[in-house]
Structure formats: structure tokens, C-alpha cells
Design goal:
This protein has about 170 residues and is an all-alpha fold. It has one domain. The chain is about 90% helix and about 0% strand. It has five helices and no strands. It starts with a helix and ends with a helix.
Length: about 170
């Protein structure tokens, strides 16, 4: 069992490092391209024209929403990091511990809140950019995966809680 757990721990670390590298790459690309666009815009913008302030507010709103999207990506990575202590508990033989139940619920919370948070931010982004937003297409992409997985972790937490209670009862009768 220990060998299988070690393989899963290594696999989890590889996934976490990969996800962090993607997030850092996205952040650097966003910062470089947005900073260049912002510099070009400030050079050519006429600050005395009507709507200068509103364009500035829209641009900063866009930056804030993008920062929010990066936050949610980081939060999702944080959710994946909970697999490591779960594997540690399993490796130590505590299959039905309170920690595992708590971590499964946290992972479910994170997956569902990520999905809702990103969906809300994408709606705001559509309003600001005046682009097309199709709720069903968004739900078909990454969201159809994370909401059921989040609920599955809630169900797993409940199953593990019931199993812990049954195990405690069996330990008392012996």
C-alpha cells in the first residue's frame, strides 16, 4: 500500500507543479501584454476628451476581473494540494479519520466555489468587453466537470463519515 501511496504522492506533486507553472506563465503573459498595451494607450490618449475617465475605469475593471480569475486559478490549485494530506493519512493507516472527511469537504467547497466564482467573473468580463457570452457553452467546457466532482467529494466525505461511525461501532462491540 505504501508503494501505491508514494506513486500517488509523486503524481500529485507533478500535477501541482504543472498547474503552478501554467498559472505563473499566464500571469507573466498577462502582465507583459497588458503593460505594453497600457503604455501605448497612455501615450496616444487625449486626456481632455469626454469619456477618458470611463475608458480608464473600464480598463481597470478589466484588470481587476483578470486578477480575480488568476486568484480563482490559484485557489483551485490550493484545492488540489489537499490531496497530499489525504494521501499522508492513508499512508499512515487512518483511512476514516476526521481529517480526511474535512479535506474531502474542503476540496468539494473549493471546486464548487471556483466554478461559481469564475462564472460570475466571466459574466462581468462580458459586460465590460461587450463580447458574446453563452452560458451553456461555458457550462459545457470546464464547469461541467468541476461541479459534479465537487459534489462527488461531498458524497465521499459523507461516505467516509458513515464508514468511520460504523468502524467505531464495530470497535466497541469487539
Amino acid at each position: 500500500m505504501k508503494k501505491n501511496t508514494n506513486v500517488l504522492v509523486v503524481f500529485t506533486w507533478v500535477i501541482l507543479v504543472y498547474l503552478v507553472s501554467i498559472l505563473l506563465n499566464d500571469l507573466s503573459e498577462f502582465n507583459l501584454s497588458q503593460f505594453e498595451n497600457f503604455q501605448n494607450w497612455t501615450k496616444i490618449a487625449d486626456k481632455k476628451t469626454n469619456g477618458f475617465l470611463s475608458r480608464k475605469i473600464i480598463e481597470w475593471s478589466y484588470y481587476i476581473i483578470c486578477a480575480g480569475l488568476f486568484f480563482w486559478k490559484g485557489y483551485l490549485i490550493y484545492g488540489f494540494s489537499y490531496f497530499l494530506p489525504i494521501l499522508k493519512e492513508v499512508e499512515n493507516g487512518y483511512y476514516f479519520s476526521d481529517k480526511i472527511i474535512k479535506y474531502f469537504k474542503k476540496i468539494g467547497d473549493i471546486f464548487i466555489s471556483y466554478t461559481i466564482g469564475v462564472l460570475i467573473l466571466k459574466v462581468f468580463l462580458v459586460v465590460i468587453e461587450k463580447s458574446v457570452f453563452n452560458l451553456f457553452n461555458e457550462l459545457k467546457s470546464e464547469f461541467t466537470f468541476l461541479i459534479p466532482v465537487g459534489f462527488a467529494f461531498y458524497i465521499l466525505a459523507e461516505i467516509f463519515k458513515q464508514a468511520k461511525d460504523v468502524k467505531a461501532e464495530n470497535d466497541l462491540t469487539i
